[in-house]
Design goal:
single chain, alpha/beta, Rossmann fold, 3 domains
Length: 404
């Protein structure tokens, strides 16, 4: 058997105590109500709220895991739909673990891996991803040379050819969508303004494998991880910055088990530079906006304060909070690779989040995840809502221009 690049993960059977002890208390269905005053926003599980059936909540999927292990049921199409409409946002885990020390999100992730191993994962629904990854090394089918065009004329180093302190790992989304190109360019300009010595892999960067990891295809993920690790080590890089929380999660959780690297999200680097007064936002940005916590950055890795440090440092900026924020944050609709197979459901979740932004009177939604940004922009364009979407770096750049 081919050697694994990253460390072995638990298998579903090893979480038997978790899925067997679930008492169906329904904590996983809602927010922490003490931190959300309006009952309108108390429901927080996207698939459970949408499909209104017990199986779609974490408690239902815990029962599916228990029954599969005991061979009490067999998989069918409904079970596939239940498992693969979960956005893996982690809201259930945050409700359950502090009270009962159970890991519903962990169970669901490993249930997907078990589905792949046993041959009943709906791989045909992800055929476009596999075809694109095979041809271009990216789930969206954008050629490698095209994915580095955003950096032309910006004086960004090639990390393989030039020595640099940090690698900017761009991720799957930013270079693949025209609407996101200005955002990754803004990220690069902010890093240059801040004096950060960084380079990119350019056409040599392949998918982080995050989409494969989320759908449960561990073996295929390993192949992409191996390619990236090879190029990172070839470049002699030990420190990585990424603006993409999905890349951040797999690099930090998995790549670091196979390679001696440090992984930082962009917001960590920028918040640290502002706290040390290495950079000083000085230009006024008169904006009343709310910050959306990406699930993989916030709930999964606890990076709630860093983006807010950046926003609060900007003169003229008024930060509003969603009723569901921080650990209560609602998924943008782009989690769990669901948008690849259930785009209408994903869009339904996105529109709910946009409604929440309008409800508090926000003029804009700011976040630091390309999938969140794309989901919001596409839904706003479709519904013709009068609300803007900015990357965190774009707002910071507005304040930094000419002021360091």
């Amino acid at each position: 058997m081919k050697k694994k690049i990253t460390a072995r993960r638990e298998v579903l059977a090893e979480l038997r105590e978790d899925f067997s002890l679930c008492g169906k208390c329904k904590l996983c269905q809602a927010v922490m109500a003490q931190q959300c005053e309006d009952p309108r926003f108390w429901r927080n599980c996207p698939s459970g709220t949408r499909f209104r059936y017990e199986a779609y909540y974490a408690s239902g999927k815990m029962e599916i895991a228990r029954c599969l292990e005991l061979a009490e049921i067999e998989h069918d199409e409904k079970m596939k739909h239940v498992l693969y409409t979960c956005m893996l946002c982690g809201s259930c885990e945050d409700r359950c673990y502090p009270v009962k020390q159970l890991h519903p999100l962990w169970v669901i992730e490993l249930l997907r891996e078990q589905a792949f191993e046993d041959g009943w994962a709906p791989i045909e629904r992800f055929s476009n991803i596999y075809e694109n990854l095979e041809k271009t090394g990216n789930p969206y089918g954008v050629a490698p040379e095209k994915r580095e065009e955003w950096s032309k004329g910006m004086g960004v180093k090639n990390a393989i050819e030039e020595e640099c302190e940090y690698l900017l790992f761009v991720g799957d989304d930013y270079p693949c969508f025209p609407s996101l190109i200005p955002k990754i360019q803004s990220i690069a300009r902010v890093l240059k303004l801040a004096g950060v010595d960084f380079g990119i892999l350019g056409k040599h960067e392949v998918s982080s494998g995050s989409a494969l990891f989320l759908i449960g295809d561990r073996d295929r993920f390993e192949e992409f991880a191996a390619k990236n690790i090879e190029n990172i080590e070839k470049a002699g890089i030990k420190k990585i910055i990424t603006p993409d929380p999905h890349s951040y999660a797999v690099l930090k959780e998995e790549y670091t088990k196979a390679s001696d690297i440090e992984v930082y999200h962009l917001s960590e680097i920028l918040a640290d530079l502002i706290s040390k007064e290495t950079i000083k936002p000085g230009g006024k940005v008169n904006m009343k906006a709310t910050y959306h916590d990406p699930c993989r950055l916030g709930r999964r890795h606890g990076k709630f304060e860093e983006p807010r440090i950046i926003l609060r440092s900007i003169p003229g900026f008024e930060l509003l909070e969603f009723p569901r924020s921080r650990k209560n944050s609602l998924c943008c609709g782009g989690g769990g690779s669901v948008f690849f197979i259930e785009p209408e459901f994903a869009k339904w979740v996105t529109k709910e989040r946009i409604f929440e932004a309008e409800y508090i009177g926000a003029e804009a939604i700011i976040t630091t995840c390309p999938i969140c940004e794309r989901m919001f922009m596409e839904a706003i364009e479709e519904t013709q809502k009068n609300i803007a979407v900015y990357d965190l770096a774009e707002v910071l750049e507005k304040s930094l221009q000419g002021v360091i």
